[in-house]
Amino acid sequence: MAEQPSWQDVLDLIAQLNESDYESASVQVGDVSIRLSKSDAGFDMPEAAGRVGAQPRIETGFDTPMASATQPTTGAAAAAPAAALGDTIDAPMIGVFYRRPSPGAAPFVEPGQRVEADTTIGIIEIMKLMNPIVAGKAGVITDFLVTDADPVEFGQPLATINTSA
Amino acid sequence: MAEQPSWQDVLDLIAQLNESDYESASVQVGDVSIRLSKSDAGFDMPEAAGRVGAQPRIETGFDTPMASATQPTTGAAAAAPAAALGDTIDAPMIGVFYRRPSPGAAPFVEPGQRVEADTTIGIIEIMKLMNPIVAGKAGVITDFLVTDADPVEFGQPLATINTSA
Amino acid sequence: MTDAPVILVANRGEIAMRIIAAARRIGASPVLAASVADKDSPAARAADRVIVIGASPANQSYLKPEQVAQAAVMAGAAAVHPGYGFLSEQPALCELLEEEGIAWVGPRPETLRAVGDKGSARQVAIDAGVPVGAGVEIDDPTIVVALGDQIGYPLLIKAIHGGGGRGIRLVTNPEELVELAPQAAAEAVAAFGNGALYLERYYGRARHVEVQVFGDGEGNAWIFGDRDCSVQRRHQKLIEECPAPGLSEKRRQLLHDSSRALVKVLRYRGAGTVEFLVDTESEDVIFLEVNARIQVEHPVTEEAFGVDLVAAQLLLALGRDPQLPDVGPVPPAAVIEMRINAEDPNADFQPNSGDITRLVWPKGPGIRIDTQIEEGYRFPPFYDSLMAKLIVRAHNRDAAVAAATAAVRNVTIDGLKTTLPMHAYVLAHPDFIAGGIPTSWFGPVWEARKESLT
Amino acid sequence: MTDAPVILVANRGEIAMRIIAAARRIGASPVLAASVADKDSPAARAADRVIVIGASPANQSYLKPEQVAQAAVMAGAAAVHPGYGFLSEQPALCELLEEEGIAWVGPRPETLRAVGDKGSARQVAIDAGVPVGAGVEIDDPTIVVALGDQIGYPLLIKAIHGGGGRGIRLVTNPEELVELAPQAAAEAVAAFGNGALYLERYYGRARHVEVQVFGDGEGNAWIFGDRDCSVQRRHQKLIEECPAPGLSEKRRQLLHDSSRALVKVLRYRGAGTVEFLVDTESEDVIFLEVNARIQVEHPVTEEAFGVDLVAAQLLLALGRDPQLPDVGPVPPAAVIEMRINAEDPNADFQPNSGDITRLVWPKGPGIRIDTQIEEGYRFPPFYDSLMAKLIVRAHNRDAAVAAATAAVRNVTIDGLKTTLPMHAYVLAHPDFIAGGIPTSWFGPVWEARKESLT
């Protein structure tokens, strides 16, 4: 859990949000929660609460899953959010992820290596069917998030990739 | 838990939010929660809807009915907020409220009149039993909130009283 | 909906929710008379309107007839449903409402009086030909054998002027009686200044079985089977079931016929319960009392027979057909109710209150939950500890016990101590599974469990 | 709980909730195989674990056997429950699981194949001595009287090579047949290049009645009564009830015996439904098909007989006793289910999706709600429009209709258009109240209502 914001932080944040274009905002850090709305639509949903609970960090809620909206909220200045954290390459299907074409062989790619959109980075086996997985975007693989031969779900991040490198 | 905001902090925040564009706002820090709405629509959450709907304006909630919480609880500097808003004299029982001892008679008291704690300000009739109602505190009655012969519920404000006058 | 009759709900908690649901079923408008503590409760939200009648303690709100009556007048109520407890069996509220032309959802005030007192209730039962407990005063403590035979053994010698359990002796045969009666008389003289004694039949292993009745107010009765409520701790029911297991046809008929006779004698109006003591060591069946109201455990009967007793109460009070079927003596299903109380069964059932932080109910066929609690609800300290009733129905008793066991396992209530562990224990106990345990069963069994754990 | 068998729930919505509840009842651990759209759904929260199997559209997730099988492997599942729809009657998933040693909650793959095709199902029925619809090919359109008599009237002349309703003529007597058959042959030649004709019995006012079976896989059957599902719009069931009203004892026995014979012939395993057409203008009863899965409307049977069919399915799949009772042909209660769909009945039942802003369910005895929706739930556009099933039980059909009417009136679903107004209309309609309407009833009645409103 992040350090608690000071009262001044809260005031600053509200001032900042007020200058923003957000229709509504919801911020929760530990015990501190702030919700603002410029329209009546405001905060309808128990769901929203659910999500905040489920996702540990800070979330400014705009009614639907908001992924990237999250980051700069608390921070004062805070630059380039999404790219800084790194894009991910996500599993296009459920199955078992292999980084090598066969046991004992060298991995398709290693962290630090540059890939193109069509570079194979691994294989997903689903019920004995092997499916090559390509990077889908050009960049430098920064890390693998899944161990060789681990099961993965659909949409699960397999690796991080720096697309601006 | 973050440090509790002082009462002054809360007032400042409310002032700030009041100047903002938000239709509605909700801030919670530890036990302190502030909810503001410029329209009745306010907050949709079941609970809040109940409270905000019933009491249109500003509400600083300390978890339970807030009445006394409002007082200087947190407060550092802060001068007598409650009194400024006006104390109320609340119905000590359910029944029909009468401002006069009998139909056609003059009211027990009129707005602007000074009362002592034991001054009778009206009668509540409950199932044909007449119960004199006393002010309960000394001050100047500023307004009656209930019309003569109106039914009142337990705890319903009958009149406002300025206790610092 | 504007001319829907208003039902004032003069109660709280799960029964308030239940009455509100019944009001909605019949197209009426429910208004809740609430204490300050309950003015934002789930029942308050479920009602069309809330009227705050008084402060949080029940003796300043729910127990004040004139405050409830005032709320009924203010609500423009066509009828007032008192639920159970509180003012439900008090003629006072009933009569205040009669004066205002507002219907009372319950029996007439004279019925409440007739059955509200042990002595007069016993007389009503005798008049109706219903078996009551044998008892007789001793004239001469040296001539007691005939009296003892008349009452049967075991029996109790009670000092008439004794009290609080003092001056009571258990006697199991005539020899003991002959020996102990003079001693008891002497001791009573010493202790209470009066040697008068009373003999009473003692049932140490009797069951609590009750019959659900519904009277049309003219002497006709619907009988909706029987319930066994023998899982009790200090006379507090913990688990109830319908039908009562293992009753012989003859006994069942005696219970039902007796109850029907009482309804007729009383010209009983609406829902009521006739409680009996059913001995497991003799063939005796003894009338205990009439509960002139809907009871906590009414859902087991509703689920077993497929009826809505609370809606029927409202309909009758509004002068309409209660829409109840004639049913057989044994329902086509077995139903068990577990009372989930905010009490710690491992700490002498001490009540507790506070926030319910997480709440998950089991789902599926045959499961019914009657409750007011929900996640985030602050269970108040002012009232009784009943949080919820978990009611489970199945095609026979074995299946119902299995279903109840699974249901209890799949309840999550975080934030408070509850009686759920006690239910899990009882439901798994061979005595309970066999059925027909007496009311004296639970206490020592639960104590023994506690000792086995330490 | 660590060695609780894992049940993979390969479905979504209300039936996923239902299977999760049944898994919990039997002490198993439910794991949900979900699409991305459903990964945070109420069913996902109710499960012990969620495995995301694919993208939101069903054909990229719920309809992919290998993805579901992979999830079952990853979950360490002991059994997979496919619900209804999706892969529930596909041998493909069933066989993939068999290879992995994971139990399939449903009939054997060969059973799925045998009843999955109209032609082979018809042959199975004939083998079992179950009445099927009469039909015969015409050799010579000028010699048709005997054929017509053999089939009975009214009948349809169908061009064998026609389709989409073209080339079909309704014939009500032999004279018409003699006149129309040659014309139809000539037209068929002109239209389809082939004059071959087929005669088939026509039932314009037949009911849809089905029988709930449960097979032990060895040829033995439990029969849990019948259901009437005749309130249909374009072959979509809207309201179902148990038992089917107004069936003669003889017809009921024919339906039940036929179903039992099918279970025996197929050595049917688990829950299934045998659908029949029951004519209202003749004594004919015609086999339609076997649904080799649990059905949407299974709750009416569960409530009527007091059983848990889904738990029984799971127990059987796990090799355990399904714990089902033997019951009589007619249940001791009447139950009605209303399908609440996210469709606008006043706009040609157009589906809609979006946020459910407010949701209030009726409460009280005999009311069961099977649903996944809750306040704040965003009803997704990807799947079918079933939001919830409102199931109401009472002691007889009249009481059930009244209870259903009250229950429908007391549902509030804001944010989406639903079929609730349609239910209110049907439940109040004298034809429905009388019982026994044919499947052709709803369409014109609803159209007429629309016209009467404009």
Structure description:
The complex is a heterotetramer, with 2 copies of chain A (165 residues) and 2 copies of chain C (454 residues). Chain A has 2 domains: 7-51, no CATH class; 82-162, OB fold (Dihydrolipoamide Acetyltransferase, E2P). Chain A is built from 3 helices and 10 strands, in the order αββααββββββββ. Chain A has a 4-stranded antiparallel beta sheet. In chain A, strands 7-6-4-9 form a 4-stranded antiparallel beta sheet, with no helix packed on it. A two-stranded antiparallel sheet of chain A has the order 1-2. Chain A is of the alpha+beta class. Chain C has 3 domains: 6-105, 3-Layer(aba) Sandwich (Rossmann fold), CATH 3.40.50; 132-201, ATP-grasp fold, A domain (Dna Ligase, domain 1); 206-453, ATP-grasp fold, B domain (D-amino Acid Aminotransferase, Chain A, domain 1). Chain C has helices spanning 13-25, 42-46, 65-75, 91-99, 109-116, 118-127, 145-151, 174-192, 249-266, 298-305, 309-317, 397-409, 420-427, 430-434, 442-453, and strands at residues 6-9, 29-35, 49-54, 77-81, 103-104, 135-138, 155-159, 168-171, 197-201, 206-216, 221-233, 236-242, 269-279, 285-291, 334-341, 343-344, 350-351, 354-355, 358-360, 367-371, 378-379, 386-394, 412-414. The interface between B and C is medium-sized, with 16 and 18 residues.
Write the layout of secondary structure elements.
The complex is a heterotetramer, with two copies of chain A (165 residues) and two copies of chain C (454 residues).
Chain A (H helix, E strand, L loop, with lengths): L6 H13 L4 E6 L2 E6 L8 H9 L26 H5 L1 E4 L4 E4 L15 E2 L4 E7 L2 E6 L4 E6 L5 E3 L4 E6 L3
Antiparallel strand pairs in A: 1-2, 3-10, 4-6, 4-9, 5-8, 6-7, 8-10
Chain C lengths: L5 E4 L3 H13 L3 E7 L6 H5 L2 E6 L10 H11 L1 E5 L9 H9 L3 E2 L4 H8 L1 H10 L7 E4 L6 H7 L3 E5 L8 E4 L2 H19 L4 E5 L4 E11 L4 E13 L2 E7 L6 H18 L2 E11 L5 E7 L6 H8 L3 H9 L16 E8 L1 E2 L5 E2 L2 E2 L2 E3 L6 E5 L6 E2 L6 E9 L2 H13 L2 E3 L5 H8 L2 H5 L7 H12 L1
Parallel strand pairs in C: 1-2, 1-4, 2-3, 4-5
Antiparallel strand pairs in C: 6-9, 7-8, 7-9, 10-11, 10-13, 11-12, 12-15, 13-14, 15-22, 16-17, 18-21, 19-23, 20-22
Helix pairs in contact in C: 3-4, 4-5, 5-6, 12-13
